[in-house]
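debug: dumping io for the single-chain case to check the tokenizer round-trip. Nothing else runs in this session.
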Amino acid sequence: MSAIQIIKDKVQKFILVELADDTGPHLWGNPDAQWHKDIAAEIESAGLKINSVLGGGKLLLQTATCQIYVWGKSSNYGEADFQSVKEMLQAEFPDYKILNREPL
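debug: decoded output
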């Protein structure tokens, strides 16, 4: 399983989690989630155990412009560390520019 589970070209909520398998942080997004805690429930429904949630926010990966926008925070889990999120996304999408703001 990839450490990043997101949907391209859709604004979505995401959470950054540490799983019990200790494989490092995982970033999991869902454009249909109403709350960040819904994403945590989805992860656990997939048979994965969460050790801790490291925050959340919103993101948009735009394939047409090769840009990824990361912004906001979770009312349940607080703000995910942008530097950690950026490093993960940059490793997975090296040709994309990652911006710490809402898309215009």
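debug: round-trip ok. DSSP finds two helices and six strands in the chain.
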